[in-house]
Amino acid sequence: xxxxxxxxxxxxxxxxxIEDYIDLDSSVAAYEQLQHSLDKPLKMILLFGKPGTGKSxxxxxxxxxxxxxxxxxxxxxxAVTEKEFxxxxxxxxxxxxxxxxxxxxxxxxxxxxxxxxxxxEIIILLDEAQMYxxxxxxxxxxxxxxxxxxxxxxxxxTEDEDLIAKEHFQSRIWEVIELKNATKEDQTAYxxxxxxxxxxxxxxxxxxxxDMKLIHRFTKGNYRECNKLLFTIFEICEYYDKNEPAKVxxxxxxxxxxxxxxxxxxxxxx
Amino acid sequence: xxDIKPLENEWKKYRKKKLxxxxxxxxxxxVLSVSGIFLLPKSKIDFSKFDNSFVxxxxxxxxxxxxxxxxxxxxxxxxxxxxxxxxxxxxxSVTDQVNIAANDSSNAFxxxxxxxxxxxxxxxxxxxxxxxxxxxxxxxxxVTAYKDVAKRFEKSHDIDDSLFLARSYYKKGNYKKSEYxxxxxxxxxxxxxxxxxxxxxxxxxxxxxxxxxxxxxxYLKKSNSQEARNLLHRIENNKL
Lengths: 270, 240
What we know:
The complex is a heterodimer.
Chain A: H1 4-11, H2 25-39, E1 44-49, H3 55-66, E2 71-75, H4 82-94, H5 106-116, E3 122-126, H6 134-145, E4 149-156, H7 159-169, E5 173-179, H8 184-197, H9 201-206, H10 209-219, H11 223-243, H12 255-265
Parallel strand pairs in A: 1-4, 1-5, 2-3, 3-4
Helix pairs in contact in A: 1-11, 10-11, 11-12
Chain B: H1 4-43, H2 47-51, E1 62-64, H3 66-82, E2 88-89, H4 92-103, E3 109-112, E4 121-125, E5 136-137, H5 143-156, H6 159-172, H7 175-188, H8 193-205, H9 209-223, H10 226-236
Antiparallel strand pairs in B: 1-4, 2-5, 3-4
Helix pairs in contact in B: 5-6, 6-7, 6-8, 7-8, 8-9, 9-10
């Protein structure tokens, strides 16, 4: 027997899926700001915010939207080695695979980029850039100086990562876009829109304003935490629905289940 | 699948912890409200006001017309029994009049208005006498108030005071003290029926029912009081 909560649970599996992108006031604003920045003759754009504020999905979204208009490439996970990164970059810039048993000469790559100025404009979206070492960041900066390659660097906002931002980008970054946790209203819209996208109207309606307030209090408006909490809530609902249906209120998600989920995820403690 | 039971137990603990401060706050609020209700009347009594303002007449300095006094007392007694006393207070104008009278030694007789305003009482003063002031004793729960009245009775032997104490202590359920003060009243004036009744009722409450009945019967032989008869009936039928 399939529970109605199973589909709801799957809506909140945390993934960077462009299909799951939800237009919210704050995310639309960030998207427009990023798009506007990309039109400017800037070398580097810094996109930063706490984990789970929607940086990756924003980069994916912009790549998806602009891929037919601009030469835009998304580098999701950082390359393990510098060599691997330049192989990847070489392929993007030259549109050719690197011959076997050859290595990228960085100076030659910089020269190649300089020659591209005015001919092509390449945008590289670097996600999780805090994982690149200082040497690599310095080389990225040199490549951006060619003005043929534009980098959007996405960083986590922590003390260490702020340091990286200061040391390597501060003087070179023309635009900074900060993503913040969602407001209660935005988070409510996010949850409702996600459920409605999958035609789960009744379940969306069963999460009342008071529950949304509680969810926002536990997750502090963080989208990733929100996904985790909602997934757990619907997982518990699914369990009750299948095993102890008397404990399920189909018209309203009981605050007991929200609190149980928060306990499970460690947002609150006994 | 979740092991849901431990999670439910954990939630129950969390719930208790969450509700604890609210329960404590509610209980504290109730306790504060209740204690506030009990403490409020006490704070309204300012004994210092009347302690210095009234003059107590001693037994030797005044002679009162007992008939008037007794009739007054009877009327007042009923009022006092039916309406519990609420505070101790003294009317300033009365005090003023008494003080004037006390200072003016040429005044042999002074009319002192009685607070109930219906009956007047004549008090005769000697050359160096002091005026007796009527206290409108309404009620008090303050221990110091009782002590003050007791102290005053020692000096004045005023049966108003002793009767007040007997009555109040009986009302409070302190039957030993009510018995004592009823007896004290009776020693000063054996004709005060109320003191005899309080004495008998106190004895009954203290478990000395036979003694109480015997006293009441001997009182009935000379007084033929309906109230005493009713009381006897109630004591005999254990309805007190």
